[in-house]
């Protein structure tokens, strides 16, 4: 494949549409439309997978997502700001979305892509131990979040409910947690 042109179709601060023109393996001209963060940093965002030590529970959030028109179970997440490390962004996002604080970073993934057919956005999964009392007082006006702390049995029950929408990363982590009692 030979990408020979990229055209920015929209001009927004955090997400844009890009049309890539390329030649396929047979030499035919093709185009692909995708969403792009157009970030020079990788990863663009962090997804925090928090385990509350005192409660012995995995922390998930139930958040309203406009594209879905409803609530989705996921993990605290957000963009990595300029000059900010993934760990700093993860600490900030966990606190802003749940009121909880990171006490230990367990593991950090490299930049990974969750929907590369639609976007070039990359994220880093940040597995952490956390503490504190969950609250949503630091949520932005555009965030409608409910913090949930799940045992392995509760995670298994959630996975069996047809009416719950899941972020793909959350479903995979919850499935592992339900089966093993461990998040990594």
TrEMBL record:
UniProt-listed Gene3D superfamilies: Nucleoside Triphosphate Pyrophosphohydrolase (3.90.79.10)
InterPro entries membership: Nudix_hydrolase, NUDIX_hydrolase-like_dom_sf, NUDIX_hydrolase_dom
Gene Ontology process terms (BP): nucleoside phosphate metabolic process; ribose phosphate metabolic process
Domain Nudix hydrolase residues, every copy: 41-173
Keyword field: Hydrolase
Pfam family, one: NUDIX
GO MF term (any one): ADP-ribose diphosphatase activity
Protein name: NTP pyrophosphohydrolase
Species in which this protein is naturally found: Desulfobacter postgatei 2ac9
């Amino acid at each position: 494949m030979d990408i020979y042109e990229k055209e920015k179709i929209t001009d927004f601060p955090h997400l844009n549409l890009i049309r890539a023109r390329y030649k396929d393996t047979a030499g035919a001209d093709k185009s692909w439309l995708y969403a792009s963060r157009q970030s020079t940093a990788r990863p663009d965002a962090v997804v925090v997978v928090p385990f509350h030590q005192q409660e012995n529970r995995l922390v998930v959030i139930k958040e309203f997502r406009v594209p879905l028109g409803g609530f989705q179970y996921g993990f605290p997440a957000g963009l990595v700001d300029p000059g900010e490390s993934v760990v700093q962004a993860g600490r900030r996002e966990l606190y802003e979305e749940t009121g909880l604080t990171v006490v230990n970073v367990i593991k950090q993934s490299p930049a990974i892509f969750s929907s590369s057919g639609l976007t070039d956005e990359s994220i880093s999964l940040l597995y952490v131990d956390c503490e504190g009392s969950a609250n949503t007082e630091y949520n932005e006006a555009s965030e409608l979040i409910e913090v949930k702390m799940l045992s392995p049995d509760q995670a298994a029950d959630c996975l069996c409910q047809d009416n719950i929408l899941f972020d793909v990363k959350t479903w995979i982590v919850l499935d592992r947690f339900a089966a093993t009692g461990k998040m990594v």
